[in-house]
Amino acid sequence: MNETIKQLSSRKSIREFTGQSVKDEDLELIMKTAQRAPTSVNGQQISLVYTRDKETIKKIAKLAGGQKQIENADVFITIVVDFNRTSFAVSQTNEIQNIDKSAEGILVGAVDAGIMLSALQVAAESLGYGTTAIGGIRNNPEEMIKLLNLPKKTYPIVGTTIGVSTKEAKESPLKPRIPFESFALEDIYDNEKVKEGVLKYEVQLKDFRVKNNMNYMQSYCEQMSNYYKKIYNRKVAKSYETQGFEFID
């Protein structure tokens, strides 16, 4: 197993940090490395807004639902879908951008943001830092937009913490995943395998939590029900429209 596979195979979300600083040169390297990530049609419709300012990070933690894991991180990076950049590029040809008025535009932005998130985290973790993806910034998108001074045609879609992991967090057990055969499906989507995988994983995750004194946590099915029986971030569509995104297709 090479070092890259080893790192990816042992990836975990780190929620406890020592308070030590991420080195300036490491942070720059992380972001420069992530900038090499692919984007649709080389549009580079992603920008990063990073902060080390503790008061700003505290504000982000509060907006994301009072998450201590954000507040205790040394760095917070917001991944911004940036069709403002491409709109200006299009205007240089005396044309008007329309991709931001479509469902395809939303998918392009979300996919590129996800790729960027992965690139940032892999780069940070390769240097020994811990990270956690933060979707909670969409809890209060209007306030995040104000805090980051984001113009029209941009949107703060997801973020990541970066910090020095505590020894306990670093050595915590890896959470199991759904059975591989219900995840990697050859040729066609097998609905029965997927459902069987859910039931097996329900048992597997419960056993894992009992073994690691986490039995107070919800099971997989309970957790999915808690989140997905409702639309838990109801301000997204309205804030998208306020930012200049329309849906005309």
From TrEMBL:
Alphabetical list of Gene3D superfamilies matching this protein: NADH Oxidase (3.40.109.10)
UniProt keyword list: Flavoprotein, FMN, NADP, Oxidoreductase
Superkingdom of the organism of origin: Bacteria
TM region(s), chain numbering: none
GO molecular function: oxidoreductase activity
Sequence ranges assigned to domain Nitroreductase in this UniProt record: 9-163
Family classification: Belongs to the flavin oxidoreductase frp family.
Name listed for the protein in its UniProt record: NADPH-dependent oxidoreductase
Species: Arcobacter arenosus
